[in-house]
Amino acid sequence: MGSDLIGTPQAQQRLQQAEAILGWSVFDVCQSEDNKVSSTQYTQPCLYVIESILADLLMEQGHSPHFVAGHSLGEYVALYVAGVFDFESGLKLVQQRSKLMSQVSEGAMAALMGFKREELDVALERIDGVVLANDNSPAQVVISGTPEAVQSVIDTIRAKRKVLLNVSGAFHSPLLSDAAAAYQPMLDTVTFAEAQIPILSNVDPSPTTNAALLKQRLTRQMTGSVRWREIALQLEVEGVELMQEIGPGKVLTGLMKRTCRGISLGNVSGLAAIAS
Predict the structure, then answer these.
(1) Whole-prediction pTM value?
(2) Of these residues, 72, 137, 173, 201, which one is catalytic?
(3) Which end of the chain is more exposed for a tag (fewer CB within 10 A), N or C?
(4) Does the pLDDT at position 263 exceed 90?
(5) How confident is the model at residue 35, as a pLDDT?
(6) Residue from 52, 144, 172, 201 carrying the catalytic annotation
(7) pLDDT of the residue at 15
């Protein structure tokens, strides 16, 4: 991740800024053989930095999106791209977010694929202590909550696949309320500007450029559901014809493909994609 960016002046500047804030090298962590990048406290800053660099390079070539959105951590990159805060302010927020989330040690999460939405809705209504954390597509969701409640839903729902996730806590659920409360003072110190590009937030997919509303939505993000399926559908309603996924992998592209067949899809994971 990010190995082909190191030779560009823009990337070198951003990586130096990031190291001054984080106290460690994003490039070194991404290339390390000990897989440190898979740990939450490293994953989130690395993704923010690499995706911000890729977005900057795209914008420098004249690309200008009509809308931006990001899945969970990706929402911070969307806010940066839209000019809501600068690179360093965003990274400081992500650093604090990742630190607090890495310290969470209670709860569980599970992915469900190939299920009936009605059955899931009934189960989540009936079973206390579990919520819909990621509404990713019509065929794929992630639930989050206490281990007992998550297992109860797994045992109740008929699905093609049910996978317990290897995570430290119940992200995007009320079980992160303490972490969200500890994060709020840092968020309060950052001034949000009016967005230059409409943003579709995780907790509310309606596009907005309003600074106060965007901060309010971000305040709710850590404990709220990632409504990605609704974001995809809203982009279709807004007349979007092409979605470019920025960052490593093609997860969001796959989710969009299952949700909105009328939108063309692309991926920008490195310099080769930008050059083409």
Answers:
(1) 0.95
(2) 72
(3) C
(4) yes
(5) 82
(6) 172
(7) 93
